[in-house]
Amino acid sequence: MKFSFLTESIAQSSGLAFVRIIVGLLLLYHGWEVFEGAKMDEYATWDVFKKSSYPLLMVYLGKGSELLAGGLLTIGLLTRIACLIIIGTMLYIAFFIGHGQIWYEDQHPFLFVLLALIFFFIGPGRWSIDAVLWGHSGKK
């Protein structure tokens, strides 16, 4: 008896596209704080940002990166560029804003790094604007 349920992929391209969209929406949610001035001012008072010459600019760049990359990832447009933005932003959050404890305190941003690496290497999948523009459906 063959146990293909245990070893064969199941709707791989569609499943990965679904995960990509959810990850993108989560990043959009986090990045949406860019429109909340009081929250952004609060972030700028953190010690790590106060050391910067332009603390408020740093906060807006970080949240803007989350918003932009989240939007691009959600719709699957320029997916690999979006992934590079996510990787850079989340590594900065994990290691410079956080304490680099990716196994505990800073696990959340590091998981975004790992997910972005997956989509960087496999691409956006079939439900994406990239697939429409460049004709790659994710099928092998």
Principal-axis shape equals elongated
| Low-confidence parts | none
Number of helices: 8
Mean residue pLDDT? 89
Order of helices and strands: HHHHHHHH
**Overall number of strands:** 0
Strand-pairing-aware structural class: mainly alpha
How many domains?
A: 1
Helix content: over 70%
> How large a portion of the residues is in β-strands, by DSSP E?
under 5%
Radius of gyration: 17 Å
How far do the termini sit from each other? Answer: 26 Å
Major sheet summary line: none
Structural overview:
The protein has 140 residues and is mainly alpha-helical. It has one domain (13-134). It contains eight helices and no strands. The chain has helices spanning 4-7, 12-31, 37-44, 47-50, 55-75, 79-97, 107-122, 129-134. The two termini are 26 Å apart. The mean pLDDT is 89.
For this entry, give a set of tags.
140 residues; mainly alpha; 8 helices
What's the quick description here?
The protein has 140 residues and is mostly helical. It is built from 8 helices and no strands. The chain has one domain.
